[in-house]
Amino acid sequence: MARVAVLVPLLLSMCNAGAVSSTATAPMSTSAATTYLNQGKTCCAALKLVLPGKVSYPDSTPYNLSLTSYWSVQEENVHPTCVVSATNTLDVALSVFLLIIGGQVFPGQCDFAVRSGGHTPFVGAANIQEGITIDLSALNQVTPSKDLSTVTVGPGNRWSQVYSKLDALGIAVGGGRVAIVVLATGIAVNVTKSSYPDLWVALKGGSNNFGIVTAFESTAFKQGKFWGGFIGNDISTKDAQFAAFEALNGSPNYDEYAALINSYVYTPATNSWYIANNIEYTKAQANPPFFANFTSLPQTFSTMRISNLTDFTIELAASNPDGRRQLFVTGTYGNSAKMMSNIFDIANSTVHALRGVPSIAYSLSFQPVPTVITSKAAVRGGNSLGLSAADGNLFNLLLTVSWDTEADDALINTQAKALFDQSATVSKQLGLFNEYLYLNYAAPWQKPIAGYGAASVANLKAVSKKYDPKGVFQVQVPGGFKLSD
């Protein structure tokens, strides 16, 4: 999905609320699971017995389709022993239960990964070499309630799929209220603010450490067409851009209909930069005053228009095509034009080493994180991110790099680390450093969960111990960011 869609989980995790629901039952007995394992001799073979037609092996069409559907080449090049193509919650529950028992019968042979509709790019985040990958792509339901107050969304969706169905109804989705989660026992439960309050908070930021979500029930609101698109500017306007960003992000009258991604794109062929602002204003009103400091700058191109959310998402996705090697790196800093300028200068000094990388694409994206967003968490039940209005107005930095050849991996990672190490040093000197790292943008060598703060991490570990005492999702699911990182 495009980067604007990647920001949605950050906003949802800060803003979602809850309701009451019930639990499901275990999918099978331990003795039955052991029987299947003994018959199958391996976890993949046992899963094939339990889930006929839903387990595929290398060189088969379903297996190859699963691998080629990954966004990054790094994940596509990871080859599991088999892929489970789940089509419902029971498939997931059966798989988890059998794999837990299998991990006891065949230690080290039943590790697994879970992939859904997201696109974390690094190796092993949602795939596993010589293990079992549970593919949730077919759990792609988008089911509005009769009164259109909620929408049930499957984790296998891409946001463009969700938006295309909801645009036709004149609605969009906000915060999640209920999540169906398969726990480390193989039991599926409906997690809500009232039924599992500790797990409900832990899931909002806890990533894949607590279970497998097979459905989200999200609140819905009316949403018609709105104003948005891209505006291009010459790099000579960068200082004015930084000042405009600081003023917008720090506005005491922040317009909650406004969204901005302020990006600086490097062109290696000419050793130059240009600016691309992705602007959305969720009313059918062109050129709202809140964006005047940006829209008044000289423009090199513009796609601004009144359209729907699906159209804008497709436009953004075009700038992030599948089939390439990818790197995300992120940081969080206090709202400051000076800090933004320092980051750009550091990037400009480190990016030159990458000019020889064939077909490299390199961009810095700044996104506002004002207190009008971070203040929502407490009134909506809380989350695990460790952010609050007390942190002040912040901005998120995302470095996105894509390239073609594995031989360039080390150089690109080295230069990316240099950028963020130097940015951390400068931000600490200026009193603008914030330890929070948006997990969906984090590089494999970053520690986003630790960035939630000691109190939040301690709570996450306590919840993990309660619902997963044997550490299945810490050890048997090795991918992603773990609580011990």
Which keywords apply here?
5-stranded antiparallel β-sheet, 9-stranded antiparallel β-sheet, 18 strands, 34% helix, Vanillyl-alcohol Oxidase, Chain A, domain 3, signal, Uridine Diphospho-n-acetylenolpyruvylglucosamine Reductase, domain 3, oxidoreductase activity, FAD-bd_PCMH, Oxid_FAD_bind_N, alpha+beta, 485 residues, FAD binding, 3 domains
Question: Could you describe the 3D structure shown?
Answer:
- By secondary structure, the chain is an alpha+beta fold.
- It folds into 3 domains: 30-138, Uridine Diphospho-n-acetylenolpyruvylglucosamine Reductase, domain 3, CATH 3.30.465.10; 140-223, Uridine Diphospho-n-acetylenolpyruvylglucosamine Reductase, domain 3; 225-307 and 324-456, 3-Layer(aba) Sandwich (Vanillyl-alcohol Oxidase, Chain A, domain 3), CATH 3.40.462.
- 34% of the residues lie in helices and 23% in strands.
- The chain has 17 helices and 18 strands.
- The protein has helices at residues 3-15, 30-40, 43-50, 61-68, 73-76, 89-105, 159-167, 197-203, 238-249, 292-295, 309-317, 337-350, 371-374, 376-379, 409-429, 454-467, 472-476, and strands at residues 55-56, 82-85, 112-115, 132-135, 142-144, 150-153, 171-182, 188-191, 212-222, 226-234, 258-267, 272-281, 301-302, 305-307, 325-334, 361-369, 394-403, 433-434.
- Strands 10, 11, 12, 13, 14, 15, 16, 17 and 18 form a 9-stranded antiparallel beta sheet that branches. The chain has a 5-stranded antiparallel beta sheet with strand order 5-6-9-7-8.
- β5 and β6 form a beta hairpin.
- α2 (30-40) packs across α3.
- The longest helix is centred in the last third of the chain and has 21 residues, at 409-429.
- The chain is globular, with a radius of gyration of 23 Å.
- The two termini are 27 Å apart.
- Keywords: FAD, Flavoprotein, Oxidoreductase, Signal.
- Residues 1-17 form the signal peptide.
